[in-house]
TrEMBL record:
Name this protein carries in UniProt: NAD(P)-dependent dehydrogenase (Short-subunit alcohol dehydrogenase family)
Gene Ontology MF: a single term: oxidoreductase activity
Signal is among the record's keywords: no
Family matches, as InterPro entries: NAD(P)-bd_dom_sf (IPR036291), SDR_fam (IPR002347)
Organism: Sphingomonas abaci
Family membership: Belongs to the short-chain dehydrogenases/reductases (SDR) family.
Key words, A-Z: Oxidoreductase
Keyword rRNA-binding in annotation: no
Length: 259
């Protein structure tokens, strides 16, 4: 039986991905800081198909302990490690608190790097395994009002590309999903002095929200396909096109007053 380990599994993309992979016969390991959310996700999955772990992706010792524990239940298999945990921050950078900026970078970028570095040894034991990272449409072109979030997701995108080349010799694929803004609780996050949610920032910019189920399907496609990045939703497709062919127009769009 194939096995996937998912961080940020208590809700949103992580929950939807767990549900899809379990429904297709995979054993699932879920990690999150939200114990209640983990229990809620686990209750949606087939009995005996899931293990849950309360874990902070910033904690490197916890990474080792949890991956040891999960792979002990799978006979040593780890077919996919989904680096999905992340937090949302929005508002003008000049008004943000340093503690919010530090936390965003530590979770959204260093948490992914931790998972990649520590997870490689486990993935390398399973032929055809894959590291799957959750990036964002904000990694296509920096999003005004989401500067730090965009910076971390650009980092995730770059890490994916670098490791895809670096790990090819070990037989471990590295992929990312690049979703538009997804209808999850993360969009309600607020950081700094802006007092404005990411949801409000996204809507004000004229971008649509993508159902979380579409991202789970994209995760399945990414794991089984050859593309380094799998784009999800109309906003991601439009931003990718504009960044390549109409960078000036995209730049002007980002400069519109956000009101």
């Amino acid at each position: 039986m194939k096995a996937i380990f998912i961080t940020g599994g208590a809700s949103g993309i992580g929950r939807a991905t767990a549900h899809l992979f379990a429904a297709r016969g995979w054993r699932v390991g879920l990690a999150d800081v939200d114990a209640a959310g983990l229990a809620s996700t686990a209750a949606l999955l087939p009995a005996g198909m899931v293990e849950t772990y309360e874990m902070d992706v910033r904690d490197r010792e916890a990474w080792v302990a949890v991956l040891d524990a999960f792979t002990a239940t799978t006979g040593g298999r780890l077919d996919v490690l989904h680096n999905n945990a992340g937090i949302g921050t929005g508002g003008p950078l000049a008004e943000a608190r340093f503690e919010d900026l530090d936390r965003t970078v530590a979770i959204n970028l260093m948490g992914v790097i931790n998972g990649a570095k520590i997870g490689h040894a486990y993935l390398a034991r399973t032929r055809g395994s894959c590291l799957l990272n959750t990036a964002s449409a904000s990694a296509i072109y920096g999003s005004a009002g989401l500067a730090t979030y965009s910076a971390t997701k650009f980092g995730v995108r770059a890490l994916t590309e670098a490791l895809d080349g670096e790990w090819a010799v070990t037989g471990v694929k590295v992929r990312s999903i690049v979703p538009s803004f997804i209808e999850t609780p993360l969009l309600d996050g607020i950081a700094g002095a802006s007092n404005r949610t990411i949801r409000e920032t996204v809507v004000a910019a004229g971008m649509e929200l993508t159902p979380v189920e579409a991202v789970a399907e994209a995760a399945w496609k990414a794991v089984h396909g050859d593309a380094v990045h799998t784009y999800v939703g109309r906003t991601a497709d439009r931003m990718r096109f504009a960044a390549r062919w109409m960078p000036g127009a995209l730049r002007k769009r980002m400069r519109r007053p956000r009101g």
